[in-house]
Amino acid sequence: MEKKVLFTASTYSHIVHFHLPYLREFARLGWRVDVACGGQPMDIPAARQVIHLPLEKSMTAPANFSAAAQLRKVLRRERYDLIITHTALAAFFTRLAATGVPCKLICVCHGYLFDEDTPRLRHNILMEAEHLTAPHTDLLLTMNAADLRTARRFGLGKRIASIPGMGVDFPALDAQAGGGPALRKDLGLTGEDFVLLYPAEFSQRKSQATLIRAMPLLPDRVKLLLPGQGALLKSCQELARRLRVDHRVIFPGQAGGMGAWYAAADCAVTASRSEGLPFNVMEAMHAGLPVVATAVKGHTDLLREGESGLFFPYGDQQALALALRRLLHRPGLCRALGTEGQRSVEPYGLDWVLPQVMAAYGEVVDL
């Protein structure tokens, strides 16, 4: 009988951008591969069936409970051998839907959205959600040291292990890098410009506003590229206008072919509140860019201060500007950080990581 696996995530884009190699690998092994997710519909190659879920970002949104009820009907009908769930929102409602359904379930934690600095009410709600669904989690896979400690301390899965992310397709980035000079020209950037890049969804957690607030503290030749969409895009655009740096902050919208964007930049920046193991940082490191990042989990797992990157405290635009001024005045430091980052990120490539993740999956079901 054909084995069946269901992948779930909060959005189609998360599946498309991060998990297609795993869908294809299961298909290659003869499994039927289905996907259930929310957000803007996209084509998902290798998926036999795609189930659209009406997921909304707020944990308590009524639509999410409707999505769980819908998914529960699918699980009872299809009788999957394995469910692999990704992203915090989808992971909770998938495990809620799977309660009492005979099926192995793997939860891949892309970064807990709570820590010791999270407001108590939010922390308690998110932690309780993990406690509630832990008994239905046959294997919990974490990506950074802080989340692994949290999961083990509070017993957030029947079995708990760590993986080095989902793997970055470095050859694909390399194939796109040749478009960097043309992209830089198309964006109106000159050879004198020092170009910062932060590709991310516009959200409170990603904190693009911190980067924009740092721009008045930096020389005019510093330009900031912020590819992406999201709920806070318009407010960030307004902030740039209000601070009179809108001519130095570029909002190109959703971007593809990220290899060209890294090749067009001089430095990668990230202002995030927390991460799992961020693709944008690993991609920038592979491209040989120096990285200036918040000193938070995920970033501190990838970077070493003064060796492969520079850190600043979350929300501190003055410390961010100071770190960037160090790079502006010390080109040799830029090169050294980029070279060491490129070397140290090699173990996170897809060719290395995919077999490790598939081996972890294979500890739950016979592949």
Task: Offer a few descriptive terms.
single chain, 367 residues, alpha/beta, six-stranded parallel β-sheet, 13 strands, 43% helix, 16% strand
- Please report the distance between the alpha carbons of the first and last residues: 14 Å
Low-confidence stretches: none
Q: State the helix count.
A: 16
Written as H for each helix and E for each strand, in order along the chain, the element string is EHHEEHEHEHEHEHHEHEHEHEHEHEHHH
- Radius of gyration, CA atoms, in whole angstroms: 21 Å
Beta percentage is 15-25%
- Strand pairing plus helix content: what structural class? alpha/beta
Categorize the overall geometry: globular
Largest sheet: 7 strands, parallel
Mean pLDDT across all amino acids: 95
Number of strands: 13
Spatial strand sequence of the major β-sheet: 3-2-1-4-5-6-7
**Secondary structure: helix percent:** 40-55%
Give your account of this protein's structure.
The chain has helices at residues 12-18, 20-28, 62-78, 88-97, 120-133, 145-154, 170-176, 180-186, 208-214, 233-242, 258-264, 279-286, 299-302, 317-329, 331-344, 350-361; strands at residues 4-11, 32-38, 49-52, 82-86, 104-108, 139-142, 160-162, 194-197, 222-225, 249-250, 267-270, 291-294, 310-312. It is α/β, with parallel strands linked by helices. The strands form two sheets. It has a seven-stranded parallel beta sheet, with helices on both faces. It has a six-stranded parallel beta sheet with strand order 10-9-8-11-12-13, with helices on both faces. α14 crosses α15 (331-344). The radius of gyration is 21 Å and the shape is globular.
